[in-house]
Design a protein that fits this description.
Shape: elongated
Largest sheet: 5 strands, mixed, barrel
Helix content: 25-40%
Number of domains: 1
Order of helices and strands: HHHEHEEEEEEEEH
CATH architecture: Beta Barrel
Radius of gyration: 26 Å
Number of helices: 5
Length: 247
Amino acid sequence: MWQRKVKPNALSLALMTGLLVAGVALYASLVLAQTPPETSARQKEHAKLYHYHTGKNLPNLAASGTGDIEVGALTIGDAGLPPGKYPLYPRILLVEAAFRADLIAVGVTKSSASALTEDQDFIFTDWQLSLEQVLKNNPAAPVGENSEITVTRPRGTLVVNGRNIRAIEGAFLPFHQGERYLLFLYYMPATGAYRAVNDLAFELLPNAVQTLRPNHPFVNTKTKEDPQAFIGEVRDAVAAARERYQH
């Protein structure tokens, strides 16, 4: 039986085109919603350092629901030294740490940039640290006072799909912009940056020293410990490490 072919009119074509465009836009929005913010080549390298296995894919969480997201983790710190008799000054853990660290410096935190870890289940932050004092220099890449270095560490806040995601490292208190820190750092040749660890990060307050590892079991700082005296002890620890291990 002969059937008449009906040609679509302008209105139906416009409707079909509109539906197609809307579908493409919806698909693109869903894909972009699950795409984390663009990261630099340096951040992509640093993202490989942190594996917390939180079981949470943060971009996927941000793509559904509303409100802020919080994810927590906890690092097990240094096990310390075996029992024995050690000199009281400089503290032996500072001597051991001085030997292992590539760079020990006092500096002030400036700008920061956060990004997702490689597993996309946690956040890390790269900080710019303006150096005031270099207590142990890195022979592989010497730095000077009044220069800046990049320090990477876990913890941070990031906006994904318009939602704030906050990652909390319970065993590593946060850095604050414009504050002063004494850090034992490990060099990352691939990016020229340094990695900070919770056991060996100290905030220098006006009249006290605060370890960034809560309830640090091995390096106890007195509530009112003089920051300048602490800096002097770390200098002595560097000298003691050189004498103890490099003969």
